Amino acid sequence: MIHFRQRTISKPISFSGVGVHSGEKVNLTIKPAPVNYGIKFVRTDLPDKPGVSAHFNMVVDTSLATVIGCNGFIISTIEHLMAGFAGFSIDNAIVELDAHEVPIMDGSAAPFISLIKTAGIEEQPGPKYFFVVKEPIELEQDGKFVGVYPASKFKITCKIYYDHPLIRKQSYSIDVSDRVFEKEICRARTFGFLQEIEYLKKYGFARGGSLDNVIVLDKKNILNKDGLRFQDEFVRHKILDCIGDFSLLGMPILGHVILNKSGHFFNHAFLKKFFKNKKSWEARIIHDINDLPRPRS
Ligand SMILES: [Zn+2]
Question: How far is the CA of 121 from the centre of ligand 1 (A)?
Answer without folding.
Answer: 24
